[in-house]
Amino acid sequence: MPPSPNQASIYMKKFYVETYGCQMNFYDSQVVDGVLEERGMVKVDRPEDSDVILINTCSVRDKAEQRVRGRVNQLAGLRYDREEGPLIGLLGCMAQRLGGTLLEGKKSPLDFVVGTDQYMKLPEIIARAHGKEADLYFTDFDHVVTYEAQPKSMPPGGSHYVAVMHGCDKFCTYCIVPFTRGRERSKPVDVILREVETIADQDGFEVTLLGQTISSYKHEDVDFAGLLEQVSQVRGIESLRFMTSYPTDLTAELFAAMEKLPKVERRIHLPVQSGSDRILKIMNRRYTLAEYEKILDLGRREMPGLIFSTDIIVGFPGETEEDFQATLDLVKRQRFVSAYMFKYSPREGTLSARNEDDVPTEVKEERLSRLMEVQSDNTQNYLQERMGSEMEILLDETSKKTKNQLRGRTRDQFRVVVDRSPQMRIGSRIRVRIVEIRGETLMGIPLS
Ligand code: 5AD
Ligand code: SF4
Q1: Which of 8, 61, 284, 412 could form a disulfide with 266 if both were Cys (CB 3.0 to 4.6 A apart)?
Q2: Could you report the per-residue pLDDT of 101-144, keeping only the tens digit for each?
Q3: Which atom of ligand 1 is nearest to the CA of 345?
């Protein structure tokens, strides 16, 4: 007889989680930890020590999916080393997108597939998989579910993610996210505050709020500005970041509200995707280039010292050299501090995948490398401009290389390393002078 759901913990004690993709997936994995730990299961650090392997996946580009497929096959190899090898379950966007098809065929190494809205059911699903039940895939959307991370499963360290919105309703024509994450919904403020307070109680001092289109947060009468204000008031939280904003959600009022909140970091991630109006239109981005640039100007005006990072896709179907040139010009003109740059990857089920992926790979690669070169100059210029200046940093961790140095971040999120002295405390702010650039890190000398 298969074990009842309550017996899951007795049979399958140890679980291992591997996470791919965006910050939202890392947050979700933390939620999964909490769901399983609550049922008596114990997290382990090595797949070979586990009874259940969970892989939280990304679908945003084909490369991400290929990587996971390779890894699943590799992990399935563990089965041959033991009499009763670990179960393997796939979670996340790829699970949501492909569902039961992932279990088809005699050779599928997967025991179960769990989509993005179904993680609360995991203990039951694991028990059923242990009972050798077939066809275990759970991909229904629940258009209201939001998750809450549990205190015990929050990772150590001062900096934490908190999801405040789930899903996306924008339907950019290239993007799979609206299909893998479902409709947009905001998490109740009291749940968010409970999580942030727990983070602060456990010595956390930095929070990054997450959502696919975060600035459109709205729960009952609280909008995004209101949420930032309330989170800012949590004692112990020193630094507040958020991602990802959709350009048209950033209004003068929102910038003005943020300017009044000193804990809000002075760097905003604002994906533009392309510098060509023609391409923006077929991407279903709901702004023109001029409108986007006006938002950047507005932000800099309302929040002096504000800087922007962005996302860009090259080689979207139909992108001409002229369209690409417009993107290059934009990147030169607006001097983004950093940019995530991607080659277009057609995703089945999206509108743009119906069009031929007609920009040849070599052209995509060539455009990407030209773009990266321009962007790399931008980043270098920002670093150079900071040489010799005095800046305030929030000390956030011990240097990875040596215990004698601490790492911190400026308000606009440049990483700064300083020599450690006894009075320095992680989680506090100090003033430094920048004296050297090493890669993308600034070296600072404390000013007393
Ligand atoms: N191909 C390439 N890049 C994509 N992105 C989203 N979908 C695709 C796709 N099909 C990029 C966008 C988005 C970031 C998270 O990933 O730039 O902002
Ligand atoms: Fe994807 Fe566009 Fe939604 Fe961002 S806003 S998650 S790119 S559909």
Answers
A1: 412
A2: 999 987 789 999 999 999 999 999 999 999 889 899 999 998 77
A3: 1
The atom of ligand 1 lying closest to the CA of 340 is: 17
Q: Identify any residues that bridge with 251 across adjacent strands, giving them in sequence order.
A: none
Q: Where are the domains of the chain?
A: 5-138, 151-385, 390-446
Q: Which two tokens stand for residue 37?
A: 């730990």
Closest residue by Cα to residue 168 from 154, 187, 182: 182
pLDDT digits (tens, 9 = 90+) for 153-189: 888 889 999 999 999 999 999 999 999 999 999 999 9
Could you please report the per-residue DSSP string of 163-174?
E-EE------TT
C-alpha of residue 73 to centroid of ligand 1, in Å:
26
Is residue 165 within 8 Å of residue 212, measured between CB atoms?
A: yes
Does the domain at residues 151-385 carry the CATH identifier 3.80.30.20?
A: yes
Closest CA to 39 of 113, 127, 130: 127
For ligand 1, which residues put their CB under 6 angstroms from it?
60-61, 174-175, 271, 273, 311, 313, 342, 344-345, 347
How far is ligand 1, taken at its centre, from the CA of residue 204, in Å?
31
Assigned token pair, 228: 């930032």
CATH fold, domain 5-138, is: Rossmann fold (3.40.50)
Atom of ligand 2 nearest to the CA of 244: 4
Beta pairing class for 267-269 and 307-314: parallel
The residue type at 409? R
Ligand with the closest atom to the CA of 59: 1
Picking from 392, 402, 343, 393, the residue whose alpha carbon sits closest to that of residue 370 is 343
Residue nearest to atom 17 of ligand 1 (CA): 311
Query: Is residue 315 exposed (0-12), middle (13-18) or buried (19+ Cβ within 10 Å)?
Result: buried
Nearest protein Cα to ligand 2, atom 5: 170
> From CA 147, how far away is CA 403, in angstroms rounded?
36
CATH code assigned to 390-446: 2.40.50.140
**171 Cα nearest atom in ligand 2:** 8
* Tokens describing residue 404: 């004698």
Other Cβ atoms less than 10 A from the Cβ of 394: the count is 23
The two structure tokens encoding residue 48: 């070979």
Q: Minimal CA–CA distance to 159: which of 120, 196, 115? A: 196
